[in-house]
Design brief:
With about 500 residues, the protein is an alpha+beta fold. Helices cover about 35% and strands about 15% of the residues. The strands form three sheets. It has a seven-stranded antiparallel beta sheet. A hairpin with a 6-residue loop joins strand 1 (about 90) and strand 2. Helix 1 crosses helix 2. The longest helix has about 110 residues, at about 140-245.
């Protein structure tokens, strides 16, 4: 950029009048006339008029506060400093300062030319050309390019604004959906709480039904015993009556010593009641229920488990908790391991077969059979281990189910004995060999107890795996939650037929 000095030849460059329009010639003449009456100006003179002073950003007072949004008229629109290498001109109309080069004045201007120019100079923003430009003029192309750019920019801005609006709408919609999801989660929690409360009520009613089932079974046995006693008593009374009505035979007296009459003969009275409750100690015994390979795999798995010591043996449990007298197993639900699932499924098929065989109408009326959900494993380590006398008569066990036990390892003998006198049952013993299975009904536990005495297990380790259903409701299908207990007691239904208004 040329320095702010006079023309190198020391004179103002001449302008060829023939090369410019007459209006521009007249404007040049007015500038020349005005320059004769103006005092000389210098780019760096402090005495020059305000419009001739060069204003550089580098020399501005930066301590004065400025409005960011206001146009800075004392600074060229380029916003840069020329470093004192360019004239700063002030527009006659808008008073906006311009660098000489930024205003399109490429020629080398001296002080006199600048002084003359400023009297009538209009900046590119204010100057309006009075003549029509030729159609092919470069400025038209530039204007079209600028217009196209402006239109493109406006379109891009419009699209950007539209996308921003859509993003805001989507954000609002997402927020609304999140609020809705939160509300639905709250509703789900409320429904779950209600369902849990209803399940607890169903379980309580199921416990009442289970208790009633046991009471009815016990009442039936008691009724049979009373009837038997009544029959025996009636027989005794009949014999006494017949004896009292028979004439007494007295021998004639013999002198001199009379003979005493013979004693009355007392009939023999049987005191054996012999009530039959219809249950057996062991319902089924299956030898070689599992093969050698499966038994070996199960034994390896059982050897890896950690058992809890109980009275005479040790235990570990899986599935639904099964609590009994002296139990030391956890109350938490333990997941049935994969190693026992296949065997549990086989046992469950036997459970279904036994139930359907006992209650054929269960298939007709689509009643669900008891399902195995609890496994108790007993470990007998050696000949001195034992199992105290007991019955699996807990109320938590399904009253119409069966209890299955698989034996692995050393052979043992289980003793069964009736729990009460007056029944026609005799003690019995059942040998349990390796890989065998025996089944007991839950009803039989009300009449029999079983045990393994010390010394009845052969040397070695024996595992007994017991499968049962516990902790669930009695298999019945009531139409409502409440059961008319009075009606049940007055008119007891058959097994598994406690329903409201539904014929079995």
């Amino acid at each position: 950029m040329p320095p702010k000095t006079h023309n190198q030849k020391g004179s103002t460059p001449k302008i060829q009048r023939s090369s410019i329009p007459k209006s521009h010639q007249r404007q040049s003449e007015r500038i020349a006339a005005a320059s004769a009456s103006q005092p000389p100006a210098s780019p760096k003179s402090s005495n020059a008029p305000e419009e001739f002073v060069i204003v550089d950003q580098a020399t501005k007072d930066t301590n004065q506060p400025e409005d960011e949004n206001k146009n800075k008229k004392d600074v060229c629109p380029c916003g840069k400093s020329s470093g004192g290498q360019c004239w700063v001109l002030t527009c006659l109309d808008c008073k906006q300062a311009w660098h000489q080069a930024c205003a399109g004045l490429k020629a080398v201007l001296d002080k006199t030319a600048v002084d003359s120019l400023l009297t009538t100079w209009q900046c590119p923003w204010c100057y309006m050309c009075p003549f029509t430009k030729p159609g092919g003029h470069m400025s038209n192309k530039n204007a079209k390019a600028i217009q196209a750019k402006v239109i493109t920019t406006a379109a891009v801005q419009s699209i950007t604004d539209s996308i921003a609006d859509e993003n805001r709408k989507l954000s609002d919609m997402i927020q609304h959906l999140e609020d809705r999801i939160g509300s639905l989660n709250s509703d789900i929690d409320a429904i779950q709480s209600t369902q849990n409360a209803m399940s607890e009520r169903v379980i309580r009613i199921a416990d009442i039904e289970t208790h009633l089932q046991h009471q009815l079974l016990g009442q039936a046995a008691l009724d049979q015993k009373v009837k038997s006693l009544q029959t025996t008593l009636a027989s005794i009374q009949n014999e006494i009556t017949s004896l009292s009505q028979a004439p007494l035979h007295v021998n004639p007296p013999m002198p001199p010593i009379p003979s005493l009459p013979p004693p009355l003969s007392t009939p023999s009275i049987s005191t054996t009641v012999g009530v039959d409750h219809g249950q057996v100690a062991v319902a089924d015994i299956l030898e070689d229920f599992i093969d050698v390979e499966e038994a070996s795999s199960l034994t390896t798995f059982l050897d890896s488990l950690t058992f809890t010591d109980e009275n005479g043996h040790s235990v570990v449990a899986f599935g639904a908790p099964y609590k009994y007298t002296g139990s030391r197993s956890t109350d938490e639900v333990q997941v049935i391991p994969d190693e026992l699932k296949a065997l549990a499924e086989r046992i469950n098929c036997l459970q279904k077969d036994a139930y359907c065989s006992q209650y054929p109408d269960s298939v007709k009326y689509n009643r669900p059979h008891p399902d195995i959900n609890s496994i108790l494993i007993n470990k007998y380590a050696g000949n001195n281990s034992f199992l105290p006398s007991h019955s699996d008569d807990e109320d938590s066990i399904h009253p119409e189910s069966s209890i299955f036990t698989v034996s692995l390892g050393a052979k043992c003998t289980i003793d069964f004995a009736p729990k009460s006198v007056g029944y026609s049952d005799a003690p019995s013993s059942v040998p349990c060999s390796d890989r065998s299975l025996y089944r007991m009904t839950r009803k039989s536990q009300d009449f029999f107890a079983h045990e393994i005495k010390s010394g009845q297990t052969e040397p070695g380790t024996r595992y007994s795996i017991t499968f049962l259903e516990t902790g669930t409701a009695v298999v019945c299908q009531p139409t409502g939650l409440m059961v008319d207990l009075t009606q049940v007691l007055l008119d007891p239904p058959g097994p598994l037929e406690i329903q409201q208004g539904v014929e079995p």
